[in-house]
Amino acid sequence: MTRIQANLVLxxxxxxxxxxxxxxxxxxxxxxPFWFVCVRFLVAAIITLPFALAEARRATRPLTRGxxxxxxxxxxxxxxxxxxxxxxxxxxxxxNASFLTGLYVVFVPxxxxxxxxxxxxxxxxxxxxxxxxxxxxxxxxxxxxxxIGDLLMIAxxxxxxxxxxxxxxxxxxxxRPLALSVWQFVITAVGAGLFALFTEPFHIxxxxxxxxxxxxAGLLSSGLAFVLQNIAQRYTTAPQAAIFLSTxxxxxxxxxxxxxxxxxxxxxxxxxxxxxxxxxxxxxVPEWHRKRRENTARAAEIx
Length: 303
Known about the structure:
The chain has one domain (3-302). It has 13 helices and no strands. The chain has helices at residues 3-27, 33-58, 65-88, 94-101, 104-116, 124-138, 148-174, 177-199, 204-209, 211-232, 238-246, 248-260, 266-302. The protein starts with a helix and ends with a helix. The mean pLDDT is 85. Keywords: Cell membrane, Membrane, Transmembrane, Transmembrane helix.
């Protein structure tokens, strides 16, 4: 696979994730948000399980109790992120959801500093300011105009950030990505199902009515897209991968306009541009600096 082909695959991955917001939003015409999360991740767990079993047969050691606890933490973070995101879509637009969810990129280094005392790159702070300004403009200069769904999306981004951090720690110790995937999918499906059992009605006809959305979210967004990402990132650079994957927010907004006739107030478009810029600079600038240091060190060794 050439780098151009890999980047096009990453663009397809971002488009699949962007389209996932449409599936998540329209599914709630038929069923409640937590039942949708439950069934979606149950499908994802079922299709991932055979690959996880094959991975287990090749593993050099079994999972330890510590691995299982760390996997459970990742699953709870995924449950929080997926549940809040789905509930938020009841009262916000797909456009707002796609850009506000992307704030996890800014939250990851901040949480790493507060929880794990890992100092972030300096670009995080201007990036955070850009993101806050983008949120202000997304509400057209009136924070009171933010819907409860917008606030849930910001909270959801915090949980996504925690999921990314915890998953990274779990993978360093266990080295079993497919086992982690199934574990977190099951935790999310069970947790969402228990919550939905006491808060939302359930009808099998609702599941049938949202079958296409469930299959899209379970098979494509949770299954195929992650496989495509893992394959393509072997043949391209991290900065280029970050750029192409970040277009998920743009695809979400584009599909929202095409399929749901969504639009933004005038300042909202500037806000989206600032949010997207914040996502890009926080992802790309540290990587560029790291590459520059490596090249400088390599040149010094040669000299």
